[in-house]
Design goal:
By secondary structure, this protein is of the alpha/beta class. It has helices spanning 8-20, 23-30, 34-48, 64-88, 105-119, 132-140, 195-207, 220-228, 274-290; strands at residues 53-56, 59-62, 94-101, 123-130, 146-150, 159-172, 185-189, 211-216, 234-237, 245-247, 260-267. It folds into three domains: 8-88, Arc Repressor Mutant, subunit A (Orthogonal Bundle), CATH 1.10.10; 94-163 and 262-290, D-Maltodextrin-Binding Protein, domain 2 (3-Layer(aba) Sandwich); 165-260, Periplasmic binding protein-like II (D-Maltodextrin-Binding Protein, domain 2), CATH 3.40.190.10. Strands 3, 4, 5, 6, 9, 10 and 11 form a seven-stranded mixed sheet that branches. It has a two-stranded antiparallel sheet with strand order 1-2. A two-stranded parallel ribbon has the order 7-8. β3 (94-101), α5 (105-119) and β4 form a beta-alpha-beta unit. α1 (8-20) packs across α2 (23-30) and α1 crosses α3. It starts with 7 loop residues before the first helix and ends in a 9-residue tail after the last helix. Keywords: DNA-binding, Transcription, Transcription regulation.
Length: 299
């Protein structure tokens, strides 16, 4: 059987279309016609030798083979882009100060730093994992070049939305639930201000469900420990959860649904130095690659 050589240009159209949720928008982003992108997708299915898309109402969804192809396409493009950056940016030097929310320290930081260091070994990175308010204050004061943080309604001039994630009720991974509908719902939460806490308590108030803060912590690790111990439910997204907890399905336990929250890259200036600009691109790619295709948001 002859080896199959997938066309990277075709794979890029495929990935961008899934991230934007529309191949018409992907065509605009890539500077191609919609018919040209459609032809590329047909070529991809021919190369794969199996159906990648299936009908889903009026639109298209991925088959199981398509989900597998998407994961590999992202990896191939990531390696291609990393090689291009390494060749063209081999002499890149400088210093980047980068911050990110606690939810993503273990999930994204090792990959992001590894990719960046391989491509730009002469650039030094100062990384800080902190809560949202501290990150945004540091960007505004110029102490960080860029930060990956939740959109908490603070107006800042240089921001790029990376993803839109639904908030979820988070309980212990064990079958035992900390609440059966009797008495106030115990919550595990950060001290205010916290966008997740505010959204959760507001939803409970609208639903007429009494609540109480059973455990509070200044760190995300503390929230996971309190939740895993069965002290109460907490509110986060489904990304970056440790195995000791699980995200409840919508409507589970009779609890109200929660809103979605934007994840964004905040920059200290509109135009950053080359090292920071390159790091911002790697961070955006890493976030989108870590999300299910249906959650990938439009930048």
């Amino acid at each position: 059987m002859a080896a199959v050589n997938f066309d990277l240009d075709v794979l890029r159209s495929f990935v961008v279309g899934m991230e934007l949720g529309s191949y018409a928008r992907a065509a605009d982003r890539l500077g191609r016609s919609t018919s040209a992108v459609s032809a590329q997708l047909k070529k991809l299915e021919e190369q794969a030798g199996t159906a990648i898309f299936r009908k889903a109402g009026r639109g298209l969804a991925l088959t199981e083979a398509g989900e597998t192809m998407l994961a590999y396409a992202r990896r191939l493009l990531e390696l291609n882009d990393e090689a291009a950056a390494a060749v063209h940016g081999v002499a890149l030097e400088g210093w980047v100060r980068f911050g990110l929310q606690q939810d993503f320290g273990e999930v994204l930081l090792p990959e992001v730093l590894g990719r960046f260091a391989r491509a730009h070994p002469k650039v030094k990175i100062e990384a800080r994992v902190a809560r949202n308010t501290e990150l945004l204050d540091s960007v505004a004061a110029g102490r960080l070049d860029l930060a990956l943080a939740w959109d908490d309604g603070v107006r800042m001039p240089h921001v790029e939305q990376v993803a839109l994630l639904p908030m979820r009720w988070i309980g212990p991974a064990a079958a035992r639930a900390p609440w059966q509908g009797n008495g106030p719902l115990p919550l595990v939460a950060f001290e205010p201000p916290c966008r997740f806490r505010s959204a959760g308590t507001a939803a409970l108030d609208r639903a007429g469900i009494a609540w109480r803060v059973a455990f509070s912590s200044a760190s995300l690790g503390g929230l996971w420990a309190g939740t895993a111990a069965g002290l109460g439910l907490t509110i986060r997204t489904g990304m970056g959860l440790p195995p000791s907890v699980r995200a409840w399905e919508p409507g589970e336990g009779g609890l109200p649904e929660l809103p979605s929250l934007a994840l964004a890259l905040y920059r200290k200036d509109a135009e950053l130095e080359a090292p920071a600009t390159r790091l911002a691109g790697i961070v955006s790619e890493a976030v989108r690659a870590a999300l299910p295709a249906r959650l990938a948001a439009v930048a």
